[in-house]
Amino acid sequence: MSTFRTPDGYLGFGKTANCTLAVCDVKYSVFQYDASLAANAIFLALFAISGLIHLYQGIRAKQWFYMSAAVLGCITEIIGYAGRIELHGNPFNFDDFLIQVVSTPSALSIPASILNGTPGYSYRVTFSIALQGAGGGLSSGSSGNTGGDVSLAGLAFQVFILCVFIAFVFDFMLRWRSNGTTVLTARFKLFAMLLSLAIILILARSAYRIDELSDGYNGSIFHDESSFVVSRECKSLFQ
To answer: DSSP states of 85-116 as a string?
Structure first.
């Protein structure tokens, strides 16, 4: 169990946190590291560019619903990274922690789920992301474990429905190959490959987050920014 209170009585995490780097070691913060300004600024800029590209493509192709979901996903990532940038230099700020933890569940899973054409699946993905966001919102000095558990439940549900979706896709491909009469265009094959890549990355990101939150906010992976950047955010960017 992490201890957020210093020997001098300062509190490093929660609504009443009063630590600063001037009086507290960073190990008393929830992340136990000072968030990288450079890495988070780069990802914020990349998601901003991605959002503008989705906006342009959506307007050009008149795909309003998908465009709205994709742009919204990018906006939530941007807000989350803004929170992490604010944590740089003050890793004890509880409001900034809430901003990044509520905003960064993979809302970019929603556009990929829309593309598979199954509304029920899209609703389930949205529900799992809502659980993850609610878990972040429940985080506090006294209920952090509860928040982590709720987020973990959302992630586990997302992995489950992704696996079900992959099974259905595999079944469809087997039936399509046995039919042998449908000719797929090169453009559709490219689309199917990129969609499959997005789904695999979402699944890998969710599996990483389950491992990350398996011990709540006390696990070693949760406290490792390098694994956060490589295993979580790089996958999100390529979704």
So the answer is: HHHTT-TT-HHHHHHHHHH-S-TTHHHHHHHT
Q: Is 138 helix (H, G, I), strand (E, B) or coil?
A: coil
Residues 106 and 206 sit within 8 Å (Cβ to Cβ): yes
Q: In whole numbers, what is the pLDDT of the chain averaged over residues? A: 78
Contacts of 61 (CB under 8 A, 6+ apart): none
Specify whether the CB–CB gap between 4 and 139 falls below 8 A.
no
Structure tokens, 127: 């529900």
CB 212 within 8 A of CB 236: no
Please list the helix, strand and coil fractions of the chain in percent, rounded to the nearest 5, in that order: 70, 0, 30
Structure tokens at 225: 């920014």
Q: What is the mean pLDDT of residues 65-84?
A: 85
CA distance 31 to 214: 15
Q: How far is 188 from 185, CA to CA, in rounded Å? A: 5
Rounded to two decimals, the pTM is: 0.77
List the beta strands (DSSP E) in 28-159: none
- The tokens of 53 are what? 């590209």
